[in-house]
Automatic annotation (TrEMBL):
Catalytic function, reaction form: shikimate + ATP = 3-phosphoshikimate + ADP + H(+)
Gene3D superfamilies from the UniProt entry: P-loop containing nucleotide triphosphate hydrolases
Annotated residues for binding of ATP: 11-16, 118
Function: Catalyzes the specific phosphorylation of the 3-hydroxyl group of shikimic acid using ATP as a cosubstrate.
CC terms in the record's Gene Ontology section: cytosol
Biological process (GO), any one: aromatic amino acid family biosynthetic process
Gene: aroK
Binding, substrate: 33, 57, 78, 136
Record text on subunit structure and interactions: Monomer.
This protein's name: Shikimate kinase
GO molecular function terms noted in the UniProt entry: ATP binding; magnesium ion binding; shikimate kinase activity
Keyword Protease: no
Cofactor(s) essential for the protein: Mg(2+)
Cofactor note: Binds 1 Mg(2+) ion per subunit.
Length: 168
């Protein structure tokens, strides 16, 4: 197994499922957002605020290149597919999984998630949250080998489905 890379919109469960999947598959778990926070010694909202989104995107691209070929479960941030070079990197990977759900469901999950603050999903950005979802949808599809709908499924069920897809 060369590893699995998870992509999808904010709230689709990339970080949660990535962690569970890594335990199931006995592969290291790497969450790109956490790697950026460690590199910068700042949280993502702090990086957005102090250095700007463009700086965050550069760090994200650099770390994607670093980890894409590592045998691990790699959870990306929702915006990784916006950059064309990043999409090319993702296409080199044989097991990129796109976690899908309607943006209204994802918004609900994010609003209940007290652990992570997402600068692009703050109360004042709700309209752009749905617009961004539509803008990005094709890029997720184009970048992934498989899609898994995460609506009304437990983490275990989603892990089962991913493992089944990449093994068959
Ligand atoms: N299948 C699921 N069903 C219900 N809640 C979920 C599911 N997957 C993730 N969540 C919850 O949704 C929120 C966002 O999950 P997270 O893994 O941080 O998503 P992402 O990394 O894609 O932004 C968290 O509070 C998490 O517990
Ligand atoms: O979609 C995006 O542009 C972002 C998604 C976030 O990750 P999650 O998708 O894990 O929430 C994080 O990388 C940052 O807040 C930007
Ligand atoms: Mg995440």
């Amino acid at each position: 197994m060369n590893g699995i890379c998870l992509i999808g919109y904010m709230g689709s469960g990339k970080s949660t499922i990535g962690k569970a999947l890594s335990a199931r598959l006995e592969l290291p778990f790497i969450d790109l957002d956490h790697e950026i926070e460690k590199e910068e010694n700042q949280t993502i909202p702090e990086i957005f605020e102090k250095k700007g989104e463009a700086y965050f995107r550069e760090a994200e691209s650099w770390l994607l290149k670093k980890y894409i070929a590592v045998p691990c479960v790699l959870s990306t941030g929702g915006g990784v597919i916006v950059d064309e070079h990043n999409r090319k990197e993702l296409l080199k990977h044989e097991s990129v999984i796109y976690l899908t759900a309607d943006s209204s469901i994802l918004l609900e999950r994010i609003q209940q998630d007290t652990r992570t603050t997402r600068p692009l999903a703050m109360e004042e950005n709700i309209d752009s949250f749905h617009r961004l979802f539509l803008e990005r949808a094709d890029f997720y599809e184009l970048s992934a080998a498989y899609q898994v709908d995460v609506t009304d499924k437990s983490i275990e069920e989603i892990c089962d489905e991913i493992i089944h897809k990449v093994s068959s």
